[in-house]
Structure formats: structure tokens, C-alpha cells
Design goal:
Layout lengths: L16 H59 L5 H5 L2 H9 L1 H17 L6 H5 L9 H26 L5 H6 L3 H35 L1 H17 L6 H21 L3 H24 L9 H11 L3
Helix pairs in contact: 1-3, 1-4, 1-8, 3-8, 4-8, 6-10, 6-11, 8-9, 8-11, 9-10, 10-11
């Protein structure tokens, strides 16, 4: 005879319908919490890279000119700020020192992005053309945008005018300084700046705050750093701001970094070509020390 006692008791799962619903809610919440935590981590890493790049741009040139300052002080007398502002070798060293500063910045960025070589660098940065865009077409469009930006920028600077900037003083100090500046503007500055601002900061902030705020924050940060270089020329500041907004919008629209890098490189490259040819076109003017340079020299003197 078969009775209820003939069957084994039902297996107790320990989870009633209410418990199952609660567990599902917890599982849904955990990925959201992890996503927010990862977003904050990415923002922190991006800001560390940005701060490090700024520090290196200040520290490396300062360390590079100190030996020459010691040499001048030992062979003749301690040079004044005005004398160093006219010293072509001193100014050239300060420009060339940006090359190792950029190299160290890229190394630091590589370590952060790849997690010490454990992750792909270029793929993580999305350093490619958008899907279904042929390279030649992408380059042609980028070239056209860069030329339009440069033409528009020339119109703005001619209308607004402005005084010579600290960078102008460095460039006009010697032809060697002009060549060094042109090289930096073409070979290292676009890549380093785009990797930091549009490659690291933008996707991190976009993930945390959304596309709109990411575009605003990154554009303001990029333009703000350059204001220190061009603070006495409102026309150049406006052009840099327009360039920053355009590059960030393109990064957001394409979801790729390469277009911004190419546009920035072409924009700087055309200006670099003009820098090299400028002495043969215009009459050079005598270099005058600027407050920013004088402050740099006073800083160096504090070491002695």
C-alpha cells in the first residue's frame, strides 16, 4: 500500500517567492554599484594622468635649465632674469625639455591604461577610425575640418588682435627655437594632449556624468590650460576654445580618438609650417622678456 510516507519529503530550498525576488534585486543592484565604482576609478586615473602631465611640463624644463644657469653663474656672473630672457641657448633648452616631458607623460599614460602592460593600449583608447569609414576618407574629412578651423581662427585673431604671448617670445628667440617648437607642435603635442583629454578624461567623465557634461568639462579643461600660455591674447584664447570644443564634439560623435588626433595634428602642422617660413616672410622683431619668463627665472634663482 502506497501512502504519503512512501515518498521522500520535498527538498527545502530555503527561498520563498519573496526571498527570490529580494535576491534578484540584490543581484541587479550589485552591477550598478560596481559600474559606478569603476566610473569613479576611471575618472581618478584620468585626473592623475592630467595632473602628472601638467607637473612634468613645469618640472622637466625647470630641471633642464638649472645646469645651464649654474654654468652661466660659474663662468661669468649670476645672470639676471632680463639677461636670461635674451639668452638664446637658455630659451632653446627650455623648449627642447618639453620633449622628455611629453615622453614621460606618454609612459605614465601607457602604464595607467595598460595596467602595467596587462591590457591593450591603442584598443582601449579606441585609436581607430569609426566603423565603415575608410582611412583615406577619414583623413580627407579631418584635413578639411582642420583647414576650416585654421582659417576661422586666422579670421578671429585678425579681428580681435592681441599682444605677443610668452610662446611667441620663445619662438622668436632664435631659428633653432622656432624649429624645435614646430617639431613639438607637430610630433608630440597633438598625440599627448588628445590621449589625455579626449582619450582618458572624456570617456571617464562621460561614463560618470553623461556625454553633455563630458564635452563641457573636457573642453573647458583643455582651453583653460592653454589660457596660461596665451593669457594676453584674447584672439588666440577664443581660437583654442573653439578648437577644444570641436575636437571634443568629434570624439563624442565618432566614439573614436583617431579623428581628433588627426585633426589636431594637421591643425598644428599647418601652423608649424608657417612658423618655419615666417622669418623669410616677415621682418623679425627684437625679443623682449615677458612677466611669465621673468617669474620662471626668479624661481630658478631661489635654488641658489
Amino acid at each position: 500500500m502506497i501512502t504519503n510516507d512512501s515518498f521522500p519529503p520535498p527538498i527545502q530550498t530555503g527561498a520563498e517567492p519573496a526571498d527570490i525576488h529580494q535576491a534578484s534585486s540584490i543581484q541587479a543592484t550589485v552591477p550598478a554599484v560596481n559600474a559606478a565604482g569603476n566610473a569613479w576609478t576611471e575618472v581618478a586615473r584620468a585626473f592623475i594622468a592630467w595632473i602628472g602631465s601638467v607637473v612634468l611640463l613645469v618640472l622637466v624644463p625647470l630641471l633642464a635649465v638649472i645646469p645651464y644657469f649654474i654654468y652661466r653663474a660659474a663662468t661669468s656672473e649670476v645672470p639676471t632674469a632680463q639677461a636670461l630672457a635674451q639668452d638664446k641657448i637658455f630659451l632653446l633648452i627650455s623648449i627642447l625639455a618639453v620633449i622628455p616631458a611629453h615622453a614621460l607623460t606618454l609612459l605614465g599614460i601607457w602604464l595607467i591604461i595598460t595596467k602595467w602592460g596587462r591590457a591593450p593600449f591603442w584598443k582601449t583608447l579606441k585609436f581607430s577610425w569609426p566603423p565603415n569609414v575608410l582611412p583615406w576618407r577619414g583623413f580627407a574629412i579631418s584635413f578639411g575640418i582642420a583647414v576650416m578651423l585654421l582659417g576661422f581662427g586666422g579670421l578671429i585673431t585678425s579681428l580681435l588682435g592681441g599682444q605677443k604671448t610668452d610662446l611667441d617670445v620663445l619662438i622668436e628667440s632664435s631659428f633653432a627655437a622656432r624649429l624645435a617648437t614646430a617639431f613639438l607642435a607637430l610630433a608630440t603635442a597633438p598625440l599627448v594632449e588628445e590621449v589625455i583629454y579626449r582619450g582618458m578624461l572624456y570617456p571617464a567623465i562621460q561614463r560618470l556624468l553623461g556625454m553633455g557634461w563630458a564635452i563641457v568639462v573636457v573642453s573647458v579643461m583643455f582651453a583653460g590650460v592653454h589660457v596660461l600660455q596665451y593669457k594676453n591674447n584674447i584672439g588666440v584664447i577664443v581660437v583654442i576654445t573653439i578648437l577644444s570644443i570641436t575636437l571634443t564634439l568629434i570624439r563624442a560623435w565618432t566614439d573614436r580618438l583617431l579623428p581628433s588626433v588627426v585633426i589636431h595634428t594637421i591643425f598644428n602642422g599647418l601652423q608649424s609650417l608657417y612658423l618655419v617660413l615666417q622669418p623669410f616672410i616677415e621682418k623679425p622683431e627684437k625679443v623682449k622678456p615677458t612677466p611669465a619668463l621673468i617669474q620662471l627665472f626668479h624661481t630658478i634663482q631661489h635654488f641658489f
